[in-house]
Predict the structure.
Amino acid sequence: MKITLLAVGKTDDPRIEQLVDVYTKRLHHYVNFEWILLPDLKKTKNLSVDQQKSKEGDLILNELQTSDFVTLLDEKGKVLTSMQFAQLINKRSLSGMKRLVYVIGGPYGFSKEVYDRANSKLSLSAMTFSHQMVRLFAVEQIYRAFTILKNEPYHHE
């Protein structure tokens, strides 16, 4: 199984980027993992929020394959503990899934078309975080899930 984190926009804080890189490198020990970083939209001043979500949605949908299991990181998604998340990844891995894709949207969320394509929604918290911080939290939680599955001492109950 391959896990892909797909994110809209770049990270402009090098400290966040460094931490994301730490967990990305650690993850390669456990799973085939990749990032797909989509460019920020240009000239958005004259676009409505819906138009921006639609354009970002097109970029997201162009990166997805028919067989992908797509999970949106969304504030209205299901909230799981780290243990539950690890078991979910394990279940998806055992099902023979080829690619598990977690999608981090832009500042306004997702278009209707992206919601329609998604197989599930997952919330990292009831709080709202910047899409830059979500990258760090998501990659750390995926790493944590694999340490849980391998019974390694990273996670403490």
